[in-house]
Design goal:
Chain lengths: ~1200, ~350
């Protein structure tokens, strides 16, 4: 073996890639990556990222400066800092510095504490991932290392069911030929297994000593986020070996059905495709946030206007009066003219009036959101007992947006469905067996109904799968009776598939199915006594009712997207040759022998029934072949497969020929088990006017099937449009046709441009439509010139299903809706393929409790069942929105009422920036006297009980239409605040101007006036919050009464003799409270102010309730009336509708393992030894597989996909 | 992940009313009976209160004499600061048609004098005024120290601008016999002001206590000579001084100056008849276009002769009743229409 250090030169001479001449990768952007196995020293030169991932922002040292820096990037915080600086200038400071610094420090502290806690949890989760154990080959020994210590160039060993720690080049595995099975659910959401293979030269490196000597160097592309592409070259022993994605194991995958494998780390940590795909977390703001920021800006504008008015007033006043008043009060030394005095007074007033937007606004909003997040975390009804996972609000800043969602983008697999296939019904020889779950039995599954019938007892069969449940005992009886049709039916199921079996111990069978559908069918056959036991490339051994029978496997006519069927040709021990075929009904029913007509009709009825229930159906048929015909056919098949050109077409036609005139056996119905309560949730959300789009990587048929079974698509719909065009023109045409159909036919003109005349398709739509669009069509539809057309069409439809979409497309669709619709979007998904979508949408929801956590990590909310979405939106979201709106309305109101008094007072105090209130009152008003009641309202308020918001989903609409807090509502609040401030100032003014105290002394001194106005303000805003609070819990009582009590307590304390004694210059109001508040006139003033402020509000609300009640008002009222007569509200009924026929031959995402099986490539050596067969050259099957795959990717399914409606 | 079942169980949220948002609560609902009865009650209260207040205000006897222009010559003299040491008096005769029953109070009232300017209000030193340190002139700004650096006592703009007219009310018992109406200059401040907020420095001898300080520039005599007869009313605790120091909220204000000492002829109050004010005119107001007047008034519990509060109450009460009637009418009209909501919406 060559000395490693000399190798690069050698390669350079051997004509390595041109970028090679650059000795060092440029540091900024890596142009290529080189990693040499087992040579840490060499790899360290490149300073590749380590495998340590870091999502946290701070550490202990950087926390304070970084956090403060971040906080002062918030405009509000900087603004308050600016105010604070203003206040330090003596000439313009009209308030003591502490009126701003106390709240500011409070706000900064609270935010900092929150950030610190968040970051702590990020540290924790990072640590947890970074400290996962993996086995690394160091110095020839396997050592346990933490993930974070894995470096580029290390060789690590993975065991079955382990997560892949980094992006690896597969070197060798326990399976023959360096094969290795992985599940990529975390990456792309597909849960079927995929095969990866090591390149032949390395696949022999089975033991550690060999691996330790391995010193190949990989040169490959720099880190990128393309999950399905990899190009690189392995240089080893002076040879070059091309590397592709087929040789890579990506971080986030799980090793399945492979005992162990070795891999060379190519990308680590942040460079892995998984992390590259996760992108940066965008900071999400809610629409309320944005509105609030706009409003705050407006308020600043308003503030400046008021400042200007008062400054002008001051200049005029100083010019007219103040100049002559200088005997008593000379101007400041700095002030030389009335104009300058006006200028100073502008700043002084900015300081005084800044309380219209208090700092506590931001912190209160945060606190309320935090409270709402806790309610979500605490919700028992969103706790999944099975997985023991509670709902989690991972972002605390988005809650109220949950009450405004208009579009939901949902992943399918793992989100709507459990990705569990259950053999639930079958039709054999015209008789239907099996019992589907209905609503009742859904509950029975949870064990709530003990009287539920027992599942069929399979104990007669020692090889039965204990987990398999079937509820119709008649089928088993028929099997035991020996009904030949039923036997043939199950024989077919046990023979016609590409499942591999594994028997670790005697009788302990494991099936490795490429798709869960197939697994379900073979398992069903297994339990009914037709146990598929093992296979060799040429045989299949089946235990039929206890006796082992070995069939000779003559051919597998594999599945592909066009054929939509698969067949096997077997020779039974008696020597008879039979073809067994299973496939999509649309395809298979045309290829049956005409003698089966009667049976056909019965079966079609059953198929309709099954698909009406949302089951995935397959039709089973067989055909007896005579020896000569088969020989002749096999010959032609061989010819076809050997053909140089278009061998695929030729093969297809050969297959087609033999798969005809078949005898119908029956049909199977597989339930793609939906998650609990999915149809109900979707129905409810639809009623709440939320549009649901399903974006799935799945095949179209599967997606449409699920669409039906979860009631997104119904047979009541006028039409389901399917867009499958391959070119821009086709897609455009299909979209146009869809729009035309949707519009009132009488109005649409024959020519294709009818839609241009209408402003929106949305308005013209009559009836319910749905749109199904394929990934490749979507790619065209998302192009800049067509995206609007697509959006318009899609939004006019009630349901949209996008299938075969890539993670990026998911995000693009979401982005499209976000861009043009101004609607709040929510994306929900469970896999890493949903991450981009989850991050793009306004709100991302991750389904937790699955194996993958990528989606959850990227999400804003997570829970483990799709059905919790209804509670999250309709209950939590709705309440959050309501509370936040009520909070904001009240908050602006109370601050305007509070602050504008200064404005009015300005006209009486020579615009000298004298405050009306004591400075302590100004400091404490927002943080003590009025903060808790409104917080309590913001956290606890409820308009209607939670059950009602589920019963009346229409209650959700105000949020979508943004009715509760918008610019109009804001102006109403402001107007009310200003109205209150006018009364708050002028009523005491009217009273005080002439009045005396009851002992004859002056009443209208400044301090008494201040106390009177402050007291009436506190009382008025307390009464107002009492009116706004719809749900008076003990806490609300405590806070509201408590605030009043605290106000008076503090008032008397501040005005006490003791404090004055200690700080005579700080507490000037000594004795004021007891002297002022003892006056009847003062109390009469306060009472009058309160009455005049509150009465119009009550009257207005009462009239609104009577004349234009909200839906929630009506619901409340109805509730009140109905209190006695408890109506039966829960009205769920099973829809036993016969649906259109939909085939669900959806058992693979990609081509089956057929060829793999026949070639024997994946067979263990032991089984290989038994069989003697010739095989194509070692790499050819992969080659052909790849060729087919790329073919089918560029030209899939075609016309066969189209007609969904029968 | 590998969590123990123990910790798994602990993930189940507590089933408490707080955490499940099921806190027992009263749902505020604006029902017709509650709102309407509330409105009627409030209306009744306001109307009643209004009438009582109006009657009470009407019962007050009050007389106000604006002497800015009557004493025009003095005002002119005071325009010029040079004449500060020239005395100027003026006498204002007036006729009181009705007896002023009970306690009678004499106020001086200033128009357009801004005691509520920001810098004016600040311009005082409470620690000086409470006698702790007579030389503490903290916030007093332009009136802290004299030119030669002696701290002013009492310092600040408020103290400096004290109202220093002397107003003497005399009663013409007959056309020739004039007697001075006995007036009390004590009891015109809050107890807390006189005994807490304002205190003389601890010393047996007032002048020595104020040694080392200067009088404010506008003052004619030092603070310890404010009341030479009564040492309990001199220095910082002089009640006229205290009254002035309690700054007014609005530019127009009246401050209590004297109260009637109900002795001799005045046990019942001020009898009807001819009176005259003898005013020593010291306080210049015309320079800033202010005015000043002197007010005699009786007293009521509700404070003052102003009808504002009473009228406001009456109007509010009337409006409230009007509103409640119209609301009732609307409510009754709407009641015909059922406010029910169509029942179960969720059908699958």
């Amino acid at each position: 073996m060559t000395v490693p250090k000399e190798m690069p030169e050698k390669w350079a001479r051997a004509g390595a890639p041109p970028s090679w001449s650059r000795k060092k990768p440029s540091w900024g952007t890596e142009e290529e990556r080189r990693a040499r196995a087992n040579d840490r020293e060499y790899n360290e030169k490149f300073q590749y990222a380590s495998n340590c991932i870091k999502t946290s922002k701070y550490n202990i040292l950087t926390f304070l400066p970084v956090n403060l820096f971040e906080q002062f990037q918030e405009v509000a915080n900087t603004y308050f800092l600016f105010l604070l600086i203003l206040q330090l200038i003596p000439q313009i400071s009209s308030l003591s510095w502490f009126t701003t610094i106390v709240p500011l420090v409070l706000v900064l502290t609270i935010t900092a504490v929150k950030d610190a806690t968040d970051d702590y949890f990020r540290h924790k989760s990072d640590n947890q991932v970074n400290n996962r154990q993996s086995q690394v080959l160091i110095n020839g020994i396997l050592q346990q290392e933490q993930w974070m210590n894995v470096c580029v160039g290390d060789i690590i060993k993975l065991e079955n069911n382990q997560f892949v720690a980094a992006d690896l080049l597969l070197l060798s595995s326990s399976e023959p030929h360096g094969l290795c099975y992985i599940e990529t659910a975390e990456l792309d959401g597909e849960t079927n297994m995929k095969v990866r293979q090591a390149i032949p030269v390395t696949s022999e490196l089975g033991d550690i000593s060999q691996l330790a000597k391995f010193d190949g160097e990989v040169i490959c592309e720099p880190p990128n986020n393309k999950l399905d592409k990899f190009s690189g070259t392995l240089y080893w022993k002076e040879n070059k070996f091309p590397l592709s994605n087929q040789n890579m194991l990506l971080r986030g995958c799980v090793l399945r059905n492979t005992e162990w494998c070795f891999g060379l780390v190519i990308f680590a940590g942040p460079d892995t495709k998984l992390m590259q795909n996760s992108g940066r977390t965008k900071f999400k703001r809610t629409s309320i946030d944005r509105l609030m920021n706009t409003l705050v800006l407006w308020i600043f504008g308003f503030l400046v206007c008021m400042g200007v008015i008062l400054a002008i007033g001051n200049a005029i006043w100083e010019h007219e009066v103040g100049m002559r008043f200088q005997v008593y009060l000379p101007w400041d030394e700095a002030v030389d003219s009335a104009f300058f005095s006006g200028f100073l007074s502008f700043w002084s007033y900015i300081i005084i009036l800044n309380t219209v937007v208090p700092i506590s606004l931001y912190v209160s909003v945060e606190v309320i959101r935090l409270g709402h997040s806790y309610f979500i975390n605490w919700d028992k009804k969103m706790f999944c007992m099975k997985k023991r996972t509670p709902a989690e609000a991972r972002t605390t800043t988005l809650n109220e947006e949950l009450g405004q969602v208009e579009y939901i983008f949902s992943d399918k697999t793992g989100t709507l469905t459990q990705n569990i296939m259950v053999f639930s019904k079958c039709s054999i020889n015209g008789r239907s067996y099996g019992d589907v779950f209905d609503v009742l039995e859904h509950r029975a599954e949870l064990g709530e109904l003990p009287q539920r019938p027992e599942p069929v007892d399979f104990s007669f069969n020692p090889l039965a799968d204990k987990k398999f449940l079937f509820w119709d005992p008649t089928l088993l009886e028929a099997v035991k009776m020996g009904d030949p049709y039923i036997h043939e039916f199950f024989r077919l199921l046990s023979l016609c598939h590409t499942v591999m079996s594994e028997e670790k111990n005697e009788g302990e069978l494991y099936y490795k199915a490429q798709s869960p559908d197939e697994g379900a069918l073979v398992t069903a056959a297994r339990n009914f006594g037709f146990v598929f036991r093992s296979r060799t490339p040429k045989t299949i051994t089946v235990h039929e009712m206890g006796t082992a029978i070995t069939y000779q496997l003559l051919a597998i006519l594999d599945f592909n997207n066009i054929r939509k069927r698969m067949s096997v040709i077997v020779r039974n021990p008696e020597g008879k040759i039979r073809l067994y075929c299973k496939g999509a009904d649309t395809i298979l029913l045309d290829r049956l022998h005409h003698s089966t007509h009667e049976l056909l009709n019965a079966t079609i009825d059953h198929l309709n029934e099954y698909s009406g229930e949302g089951l995935r159906t397959l039709v089973l048929a067989y055909k007896d072949l005579d020896e000569e015909y088969y020989e002749e056919w096999a010959d032609r098949r061989l010819q076809a497969s050997l053909a140089r050109d278009s061998w695929e077409d030729r093969l297809a036609s050969v297959y087609e020929e033999i798969e005809s005139d078949m005898m119908l056996l029956g049909a199977t119905a597989i339930e793609d088990k939906l998650q609990q309560g999915v149809p109900e949730t979707i129905a409810l959300l639809t009623l709440a006017n939320i549009k649901i789009w399903v974006l799935t990587g799945d095949k179209q048929e599967t997606a449409v099937n699920i669409g039906y079974s979860c009631k997104m698509l119904t047979d009541d719909m006028s039409e389901v449009f399917v867009v499958t065009g391959h070119t821009v023109l086709e897609v455009r045409e299909e979209l146009r046709k869809a729009r035309e159909k949707m519009m009132d036919p009488s109005r649409s003109v024959g020519n294709g441009f009818a839609y241009h005349e209408k402003t929106s398709v949305l308005e013209a739509v009559a009836g319910e439509y749905a749109l199904v669009i394929n990934g490749h069509s979507l790619a065209h539809a998302l192009e800049a010139d067509m995206e609007l057309e697509f959006l318009e069409t899609a939004c006019a439809c009630k349901a949209v299903i996008c299938c075969r979409v890539t993670p990026l497309q998911k995000a693009q669709v979401v982005e499209l809706v976000k861009k043009y619709k101004k609607a709040v979007t929510l994306a929900i998904g469970d896999g890493a393929n949903d991450v981009s979508m989850i991050k793009t949408a306004h709100i991302g929801v991750g389904i937790s409790g699955q194996e993958g956590i990528q989606a959850v990590l990227a999400s804003d909310y997570s829970f483990s069942q799709f059905k919790f979405l209804q509670r999250l939106l309709l209950v939590h979201g709705r309440w959050s929105y309501l509370r936040m709106c009520k909070f904001l309305c009240y908050f602006f109101y109370k601050n305007f009422a509070f602050t504008m008094v200064h404005f009015w007072f300005g006209f009486f105090c020579g615009f000298s920036a004298q405050t009306v209130y004591d400075q302590y009152f100004i400091t404490l008003y927002n943080i003590v006297y009025t903060s808790l009641p409104v917080l309590a309202m913001g956290v606890f308020d409820q308009d209607v009980p939670e059950q009602r918001s589920m019963e009346y989903p229409k209650l959700y609409e105000p949020g979508q239409l943004n009715l509760l807090f918008n610019k109009r509502e804001f102006f109403i609040c402001i107007a009310q605040g200003i109205y209150t401030s006018v009364l708050m100032f002028f009523i005491p003014y009217g009273v005080f101007a002439e009045a005396t105290r009851d002992d004859g002394t002056q009443l209208a001194d400044y301090q008494s006036f201040a106390v009177t106005v402050a007291t009436s303000l506190v009382i008025v805003v307390s009464v107002q919050i009492g009116l706004d609070t719809g749900y008076w819990t003990a806490i609300n009582h405590f806070f509201i009464w408590g605030s009043l009590a605290v106000y008076f307590a503090i008032l008397f304390a501040m005005h006490s003799n003791g404090l004055f004694d200690m700080f005579p210059n700080q507490f000037r109001f000594v004795g004021n409270a007891q002297n002022t508040l003892a006056q009847p006139a003062v109390w009469l003033t306060i009472a009058l102010t309160t009455v005049i402020c509150i009465m119009p509000v009550v009257a207005f609300r009462f009239l609104k309730l009577n004349l234009k009640p909200d839906l929630s008002d009506t619901v409340r009222y109805t509730q009140l009336v109905r209190k006695k007569q408890k109506a039966q509200h829960r009205c769920m009924r099973r829809v036993g509708r016969t649906g259109s026929r939909r085939s669900g031959y959806a058992f693979s995402h990609q081509e089956g393992f057929g060829e793999l099986i026949m070639s024997g490539k994946n067979m263990r050596l032991s089984s290989l030894a038994l069989s003697s067969f010739t095989t194509r050259s070692s790499s050819s099957w992969i080659e052909s597989l790849r060729r087919k795959k790329s073919d089918s990717a560029s030209s899939p399914s075609g016309g066969a996909d189209k007609p969904l409606k029968g | 992940m590998d969590r123990t079942s123990q910790s798994c169980r602990s993930r189940l949220p507590d089933n408490t009313a707080l955490k499940q948002q099921r806190l027992p609560a009263y749902r505020l609902q604006l029902s017709a009976t509650k709102v309407l009865s509330g409105f009627f009650a409030t209306g009744a209260f306001c109307l009643g209160m209004g009438i009582v207040l109006i009657l009470s205000a009407k019962s007050i006897k009050e007389i106000e004499i604006n002497y800015t222009n009557i004493c025009a010559n003095c005002a002119e003299l005071r325009e010029n600061a040079i004449n500060f040491d020239k005395e100027c008096t003026c006498s204002i005769p007036f006729y009181l048609p009705d007896t002023m029953q009970g306690n009678v109070y004499m106020y001086y009232k200033l128009y357009g004098f801004h005691q509520n300017l920001y810098r004016y209000i600040l311009s005082r030193s409470n620690s000086q005024l409470m006698g702790r340190d007579v030389k503490d002139v903290g916030n007093c700004d332009s009136f802290r120290k004299t030119h030669n650096g002696t701290p002013i006592c009492p310092c600040g703009a408020i103290a400096n601008s004290i109202f220093n007219d002397t107003i003497i009310l005399s009663y013409n018992l007959t056309s020739s016999v004039r007697i001075k109406v006995p007036m009390l200059s004590n009891g015109i401040t809050w107890w807390t002001d006189k005994f807490i907020k304002f205190q003389n420095p601890n010393s047996n001898n007032l002048p020595s206590a104020f040694a080392g300080t200067a009088k404010p520039p506008h003052w004619s005599k030092p603070v310890y000579e404010l009341d030479e007869e009564d040492s309990g009313n001199s220095g910082f605790i002089n009640e006229d001084f205290i009254v002035w120091m309690r700054t007014a909220a609005f530019p127009t204000f009246k401050k209590l100056h004297r109260r009637l000492n109900r002795i001799q002829y005045f046990t019942e109050g001020l009898p009807a008849g001819n009176y005259s004010f003898n005013i020593t005119y010291n306080f210049p107001v015309t320079r800033f276009q202010g005015e000043k007047s002197v007010v005699l008034s009786t007293l009521t519990w509700s404070g003052g002769s102003s009808l504002f509060l009473g009228l406001a109450y009456t109007v509010t009460g009337a409006m409230t009743w009007l509103a409640s009637f119209s609301m009732m009418a609307i409510h009754l009209m709407r009641k015909e229409k059922k406010m029910f909501f169509p029942s179960c919406q969720v059908k699958l």
